[in-house]
Amino acid sequence: MTGNGLLPVSMAAWRRLLLATGAAALAGGLSFLAWQRFHPVMAADGWAYRVHLDELPQVSALAIDRDGSLLWTKELDNGRGSLFRRSPEGKVAEVRGGLSKPDGLLSFRGGLVVSQEGGDLPVIWFHEGRSTDLFVGQRVEGLASDGQALYAIEDLAEDGRLLRFDPLSKQLSVMRSGLAEAEGVAICGNGDLFYTLKGKGRGAGSVRRWLADGSDPVLLDELNAPGFLMCDEEGLWISEDATHRARLLLLDRSGRLHVILRGLRSAQTVLALAPGRLLVAEQGRGRVLLVERRAAQAN
Q1: What is the CA radius of gyration of the chain?
Q2: How far, in Å, CA of 97 to CA of 71, rounded?
Q3: Cα angle value 12/16/18 (rounded, 5°)
């Protein structure tokens, strides 16, 4: 026995013990990562989802064209990003290449507006077969419109801006500056304007309401990297751009928060098709989901 009363352990036994412990820790870590990656998306009671389109690497923004075509962006940097269209008949074509992280897409004044997060780059308006640079922003992400003006938000570490562009006067105004990691923006039918701050670390994200006095109260906090906002007759939709365990949220008009989907990977744009029916771009799995409210079953 040793001086402390314990039986001596050989170096070889210690090595075997350390190797076994390390292997167990590695296996546990890999199992957790696999669980996060492959765990299925879960829908709330009363909701269902299915894969609408698959094999869309880096899918980000979504929009519907006037003819019913679905458009989406492939969010790659350094001029490798693209805008695609899928016709109602299912034919897919690239509409525009050479974009840098196209992250916002919006139907606007009879055409489409695309933002680029890849640097100091123009927000582009596609209309009647032509493209027009509306204004230049710094890492512009989310886009919104009230039918007249265009709103855009910049994703910078410390000095992002919330912008308003008047297409008639061509005037660009700064509605808010000094924003840290801002991503989404939405304007509701009553004129209320909201934006997201992604935050650093899980649970640090928030949704704020823009007010003219600059107070911008917090509407929701403790969110996991909120990235996209969309306002419709149901309320305010929020998607979380977290790599794992992201959610699709609905803040209804009564102020109640609903978790519609769990287990998403890097959720992006939410696109309303009809009441209780919407598309969600899930970038982390390269697909678009169709989310629908289930019909109430009779007792």
Answers
A1: 23
A2: 13
A3: 115
